[in-house]
Design goal:
Strand order of the largest sheet: 5-6-1-7-8
Number of helices: 16
Strand content: 15-25%
Number of strands: 14
Bound molecules: thymidine-5'-triphosphate, magnesium ion
Number of domains: 3
Order of helices and strands: EHEEHHEHEEHHEHEHHHHHEHEEHEHEEH
CATH topology of the largest domain: Dna Ligase, domain 1
Shape: elongated
CATH architecture of the largest domain: 2-Layer Sandwich
Length: 405
């Protein structure tokens, strides 16, 4: 059974404004523009919603309903930046992340719970980090499918968390109004109401053929949704995808040159895959699991996307040193993740000569290793691995070869 999270920020545009200007907190606030203009509400604070204001409503009407509301024009770059930080936090939890809009995403935590604990606890950690690091509240739905997770996050709003247990999907959906179901817009809602259908439960028990006849293909889809049936997978987009390498040690260790050497080795593995796939990465994350299984990750965004081993390692090492300073406990696992992938579209001629040298060297090393194995050509930093890992046919045999090669 799958375990899918849907995370959506509360009153996103408005909340970003409230973080920047605390005088706006707990007030009816609307982002969309001056009510004298012909625009519509983009985002309304929950205080404003108690007056009946909602997204899509003409600003003039919003002002009539709530004369005290504060109307802001808003600034998209600010929301873009908050969105990037939000997605960055989510990507620390899993690479199986699909952004579904500027302020929402799906995460697939299937099989995750044996290592990281119940999904609901992970969801609370996600909420806490979003609050601490961006100052925003998020609502999270957890269920076996995307559609139920999304409906659940909506029901939980604001600042909520709602898990629908496996097998309970239909029961959960049944009493809700049809408008809560994804893909049921105002037009479909009207057709359904004409058929006497107001709740998701009523929709679920209609014959699919009837729905198909009146609404077409969409009718089949929403009939499935109403029954909690949704085969859509969480599909990471290229930018959300990541490449990672990690290894568990045979023995927990605090041997610094060894940790550093292993990190270099893993950086080289990640860099080689980036180059092979014709990609560069914007973010580097280091992951440590301590002897007591406590796991932390630290991420940094680079000014420029890279596929160079040394650049990945430099950032990784700086994060590693911080983590070691933060908690002096023996390390059980070390990993490195690169994410924020972009296509390697850069022309060689555009590079300055210093990075160009590094790039060529990386590619030469890649081709030698493809022929003769990893240890055929090695940088000094990874020689320390000779003391810890056996070698075979030019390759180190790490305890978790599938994750570290
Ligand atoms: P939503 O998540 O739909 O709305 P919201 O975050 O403001 O409120 P909540 O999730 O708590 O119900 O959309 C996210 C942002 O997208 C929203 O803050 C503003 C923007 N948006 C528009 O610009 N126009 C719209 O019609 C909608 C629905 C959203
Ligand atoms: Mg939202």
């Amino acid at each position: 059974m799958g375990k899918i999270l849907h995370v959506d920020l509360d009153a996103f545009f408005v909340s970003v404004e409230q973080v920047l200007n605390p005088a706006l907190r707990d007030r009816p606030v609307v982002v969309g523009g001056e009510p004298s203009l012909r625009g519509v509400v983009a985002s309304a604070s929950y205080e404003a919603r108690t007056y009946g204001l909602h997204a899509g409503m003409p600003l003039a009407q919003a002002q009539r309903l709530c004369p005290d509301a504060i109307f802001l024009k808003g600034s998209f770059p600010r929301y873009q930046e908050a969105s990037e930080r939000f997605m960055g936090i989510l990507s620390d939890f899993t690479p199986d992340l699909e952004p579904a809009g500027i302020d929402e995403a799906y995460l697939d935590l299937t099989g995750f719970e044996s290592l990281y604990g119940p999904a609901a606890e992970t969801a609370l950690r996600i909420k806490r980090r979003i609050k601490d690091e961006i100052g925003l509240t998020a609502s999270i739905g957890i269920s076996s499918s995307k559609v139920v997770a999304k409906v659940a996050s909506g029901v939980a709003k604001p600042d909520g968390l709602l898990e629908v247990a496996p097998g309970e999907e239909r029961l959960f959906l049944a009493p809700l109004p049809i408008a809560k179901l994804p893909c049921v817009g105002p037009k479909t809602e009207k057709v359904l109401r004409g058929m006497g259908v107001t709740t998701i439960g009523q929709l679920a028990s209609l014959p699919p053929s009837l729905l198909k006849a009146s609404i077409g293909l969409l009718g089949e889809v929403i009939h499935g949704y109403a029954n909690g049936v949704d085969e859509r997978k969480v599909e990471p987009t290229a930018a959300a995808k990541s490449i990672s390498r990690e290894t568990t040690f045979a023995q927990d260790t605090l041997d610094y040159p060894f940790l550093r050497g292993t990190l270099y080795y893993l950086s080289e593995r990640v860099g080689a895959e980036l180059r092979r796939d014709g990609k560069r990465a914007r973010c580097v994350t280091v992951k440590l699991r301590y002897a007591d299984f406590h796991t932390i990750t630290r991420r940094r965004t680079l000014r420029e996307a890279t596929n160079a081993d040394q650049a990945i390692f430099d950032v990784g090492l700086e994060r590693l040193e911080r983590l070691l300073g933060y908690r002096r406990q023996r390390v059980r696992l070390i990993g490195i993740v690169v994410s924020g992938l972009v296509n390697d579209g850069r022309q060689l001629s555009l590079l300055d000569s210093s990075t160009q040298g590094g790039e060529c060297l990386n590619r030469v090393i890649d081709s030698i290793r493809a022929k003769y194995g990893f240890t055929a050509i090695q940088r000094g930093r990874t020689l320390v691995l000779n003391n810890f890992f056996p070698r075979e046919k030019g390759e180190y045999l790490l305890p978790t070869p599938a994750l570290s090669r």
